[in-house]
Amino acid sequence: MYCKDLLVNLKSFLNMRDNRWLDEKLQYLLKTYFGGVAITNPLEIRFGREAKFRFGSIKLVKKGITSGRGTTSITSYLPRFLLKARGTRDTLGARGTLKASETPAKSVITITRMFARDDVPADVVLYTISHELCHYAHGFSSSNKRLFRHPHHGGVVNREIKERGGEKYIDAYKKWIKEYRKRILAGRAKI
Ligand SMILES: [Zn+2]
User: From 148's CA, which of 9, 64, 119, 131 has a CA 20 to 30 Å away?
Assistant: First the structure.
């Protein structure tokens, strides 16, 4: 029994998606769906900690700063998340846009390590990356011009993804989040 568990763990470890996989997906999305978006400052992607409710985030990292400071917590959104399946749970850098005098080093997209496991459909991860790319395009946590007052103003993220032809990612995410919410509410997923 113990050995079997060990083998199962080993198998899932070997199947883990890594940062290179994430970067491949980012490049694919940029090329295929976000071709017209100005890359005004460098963009990076990586897995972060195992977050159960915050699936993605984008923040602006200035030279020499590598900590998570500057992101906004979304903990207060938790009860709403349990009731509704709208949008993705994420954070944006508290400093949404830049003053002209500031030079950013890069925008960093962080994806929950929970999505490294291959039992989470790849399209769900692609949705989350697309979601963060919309923020980048709309000038939140990037040096692009800010287009909206709030990052999720009036459903702008999903509308943007849809207009760019990524509706299948929205569908995959909605389907997955529905099941995920059920498991959370049933207490089967560890929080
Ligand atoms: Zn968002």
Answer: 64
In a domain? residue 162 = yes
Q: What is the DSSP letter of 7?
A: H
> What is the 135 CA–ligand 1 centroid distance (Å)?
7
Per the domain annotation, does 1 fall within a domain?
A: no
Number of C-beta neighbours around residue 54 at 10 A: 23
- Give the closest residue to 90 by CA, choosing from 128, 61, 116, 127: 128
* Residue 3 located in a structural domain: no
Q: Model confidence over 141-151: pLDDT tens digits? A: 998 999 999 99
**Domain interval for residue 45:** 18-185
Å from CA of 101 to ligand 1 middle? 26
Q: How far, in Å, from the CA of 7 to the mean position of ligand 1?
A: 37
Q: Does residue 126 fall inside a structural domain?
A: yes
Gap from CA of 120 to ligand 1 centroid (Å):
19
Question: Is this structure's pTM higher than 0.70?
Answer: yes
Q: For the residues 46-72, what does the mean pLDDT come to? A: 76
The CA 79 to ligand 1 mean position distance, Å, reads 17
